[in-house]
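User: Sequence recovery, please. Input:
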């Protein structure tokens, strides 16, 4: 790209450093900012600057927070005996969007991947162990990616907590709604059959 303005070029370069943002998309964003009033741009950049300088990570669950402990962890109306273990903050947002879970979370910050140099020390596993041992937690729900690395992480954590009186469960895995059976991989299909549920869980066959 050839720019007539070094300032625009620098802005495009900075936007294109973001994941999934190419030079063309970055240019479109920069040109859109040029259409805004200066006060709107100041508000935009100010929000990003404040977020980067002031955002914290919850000391309990490692979720993003505006204070030392996040709003989920301090919420007394939530079930503090349940902890849903996830890989990233995005997973917390996804599960919260379903409005079907009312417990707490624990963000690992990734999953075990020796080939990528990610071991237990790089993840928030030690703090999870401490939470389970020092709090009245009765169930840990493992909501990790259904991959070899994800299953390895589940197995490792389960082994670390084998002497702790806590129930460890995993989220159900199966064919996605609207998906066609012939396109499902063998592992997903096998688990769907093995973890089959009564039809009453889906439809009312009694007619009542």
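Assistant: Recovered sequence (208 residues):
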């Amino acid at each position: 790209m050839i720019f007539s303005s070094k300032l625009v070029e620098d802005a495009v370069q900075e936007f294109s450093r973001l994941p999934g943002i190419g030079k063309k998309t970055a240019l479109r964003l920069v040109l859109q900012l040029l259409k805004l009033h200066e006060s709107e741009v100041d508000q935009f950049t100010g929000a990003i600057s404040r977020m980067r300088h002031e955002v914290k990570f919850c000391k309990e669950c490692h979720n993003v927070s505006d204070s030392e402990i996040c709003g989920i962890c301090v919420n007394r109306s939530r079930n503090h005996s349940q902890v849903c273990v996830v890989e990233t903050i995005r997973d917390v947002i996804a599960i919260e969007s379903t409005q079907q879970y009312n417990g707490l979370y624990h963000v690992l910050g990734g999953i075990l991947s020796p080939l990528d140099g990610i071991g237990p020390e790089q993840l928030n596993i030690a703090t999870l162990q401490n939470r389970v041992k020092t709090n009245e937690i009765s169930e840990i729900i493992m909501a990790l990616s259904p991959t070899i690395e994800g299953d390895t992480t589940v197995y490792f954590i389960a082994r670390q907590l084998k002497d702790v009186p806590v129930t460890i469960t995993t989220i159900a895995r199966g064919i996605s709604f609207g998906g066609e059976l012939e396109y499902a991989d063998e592992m997903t299909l096998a688990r769907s059959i093995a973890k089959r549920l009564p039809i009453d869980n889906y439809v009312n066959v009694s007619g009542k």
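The beta strands are 56-57, 64-65, 79-86, 103-107, 139-142, 167-170.
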